[in-house]
Amino acid sequence: MSVRHTLEARDVRIGYDGREIVPGLSVRIPPGRFTVIVGPNACGKSTLLRAMARLHAPTSGAVLLDGRPVQQTPTREVASVLGILPQSPVAPEGITVSDLVARGRYPHQGWFRRWTAEDDAAVGAALLSTDVLELAERPVDELSGGQRQRVWIAMALAQRTDILLLDEPTTFLDVAHQMDVLDLLTDLNRERGVTLVAVLHELNMACRYADHLIAMKQGEVVAQGPPAEIVTEELVTEVFGMRCSIVPDPASGTPLVVPLGRHHVPAG
Length: 268
Prior knowledge:
Blueprint: E1 7-16, E2 19-29, E3 34-38, H1 45-52, E4 60-65, E5 68-69, H2 75-81, E6 82-85, H3 97-102, H4 117-129, H5 145-158, E7 163-167, H6 175-192, E8 195-199, H7 203-209, E9 212-217, E10 220-225, H8 227-230, H9 233-240, E11 244-248, E12 255-259
Parallel strand pairs: 3-8, 3-9, 6-7, 7-8
Antiparallel strand pairs: 1-2, 1-4, 4-5, 9-10, 11-12
Helix pairs in contact: 4-5
């Protein structure tokens, strides 16, 4: 992709039903990099992602896409640049896998544009890369949780946006498929320059795959930067309330968090 779009949250405050979840934070997503947001449950990770995706309006501050407030940008224009895979999406009853994935092409359709060979190619590539091509004619509601998750990822990939936001994309997947998805996203980032932002629960997966890590606690950013620079025993204790040792991951050299229970004493 030749255009590098920018995305940032500037002094945003976000809440639901009169309760403030994010009391005011600013983050700038590095263009063309793989950013992962981590933190304990209910710390505001998904809330921040939804605000950046224009799914939830901040009570103050602004999310800026290419320097323009995303809430003031037309929906189709946003969708042609920024894709989102939310938590627990719901498919229309009876829709087939291929039809659901094809919906990822809607932002490119315009009023008079017909379905093209480019659309076919985008859908086919998305089905193939997520290993769901053989499920193309199956109804989505007949699939397992892991299969459905891969289909939703395929729809997001078919959109072919410059920025892709994913809220817990490895939910329902076993470890092998978790790594398949994260490898696929890494390929998208490296080969097409797609800017990725993902919320992940698994800290070691985040450290292994992220170029840029954002650690959150109670609606605030505690630290951000390359995992090798910010992931320390002190940070893990502060953010997750967990004692640990940090050692190099033998496969990637990235920080590997080894949890310690009350009866464990770090070696050495």
